[in-house]
Amino acid sequence: MASSSSSCKRIKQVATKQRDSDIDGWISDPEAQDTFVRSFRNCKIINHKYADLPFFQTHVFAFPTLLSFQSLEKFVQLKGNVYPDLVRIFYVNLRCEEDLLTSHVKGVNIVLTKELWTSIAGFQPGGLPAHRGLPGVNRLDIYQSCLRDPTAKRNYNIFRADAIEKDERVLAFIISWILVPHNSNHAQLTTEDVFLLHAFKCNLLID
Predict the structure, then answer these.
(1) For the chain, which residues make up each domain, given as ranges?
(2) Distance from C-alpha of 21 to C-alpha of 168, rounded to nearest angstrom
(3) What share of the chain in percent tops pLDDT 90?
(4) Among 29-33, 129-133, 161-165, which range has the highest average pLDDT?
(5) pLDDT (tens digit, 9 = 90+) per residue, 4-25?
(6) What integer pLDDT is reported at residue 28 of this predicted model?
(7) How crowded is the C-beta side of 146, counted as CA atoms within 13 Å?
(8) Helix/strand/coil (H, E, C) string of the chain?
């Protein structure tokens, strides 16, 4: 089985492309321009990452099967160039209309439907909001069940990723880097990460 260091290298960051900002050409509405300058221009974009699933399958990791059950294997392997300024424009123009997400970027109207998510990312509708917690399931019990050595003394106020089994550890990184990305310490699982990890392991369909 592959080492931890080589496994982490198989969760990769896509290329980021910078473009010369031309706000007048991107946003025609003066109020929206002001919103962009005040709230979005300097907003940090979390760079998208993707997983090299064939590598993990070759090295006999089990978690790719769990991703497949959730119809997420396509999404976690998506890659391509990212243009941060265009991402910011997308969000400054983002609207929710009749359960549809719509935006407008450089003259292009964007409508995100369930069918589009299914076609591009492979998402399947439905499932549980497992990140919010699961009835009758304790986060400490979940974490302890993933530990390499459940009998070792440890501080249960934090959920350290390096203390859990290799399969669960890589899956936890995929959750925190790709599925529910955040800028906090990825070596420490959040409560949401722990509940999602449990849902994956138990084949509970997630929303």
Answers:
(1) 21-47+82-121, 50-77+126-206
(2) 41
(3) 32
(4) 161-165
(5) 555 555 677 665 655 555 555 5
(6) 61
(7) 29
(8) CCCHHHHHCCEEECCECCCCCCHHHHCCCHHHHHHHHHHHCCCCCCCCEEECHHHHHHCCCCHHHHHHHCCCCCHHHCCCCECHHHHHHHHHCCEEECCEEEEEECCEEEEECHHHHHHHHCCCCCCECHHHCCCCCCHHHHHHHHECCCCCCCCCCCEEHHHECHHHHHHHHHHHHHHCCCCCCCCEECHHHHHHHHHHHCCCCEC
Query: What whole-number distance in Å separates Cα of residue 197 and Cα of residue 164?
Result: 11
Give pLDDT, residue 3.
Answer: 54
Q: Are 167 and 62 in contact (CB under 8 A)?
A: yes
Give 101-145 pLDDT, tens digit per residue. 898 888 888 998 888 888 888 888 788 888 888 888 999 999 999
Report residue 188 as tokens. 């420490």
Cβ atoms 178, 51 nearer than 8 A: yes
- 160 sits in the region (left: phi over 0; alpha: psi -120 to 50; else beta) called beta
pTM for this predicted structure: 0.78
Q: How far is CA 144 from the centre of its chain?
A: 24
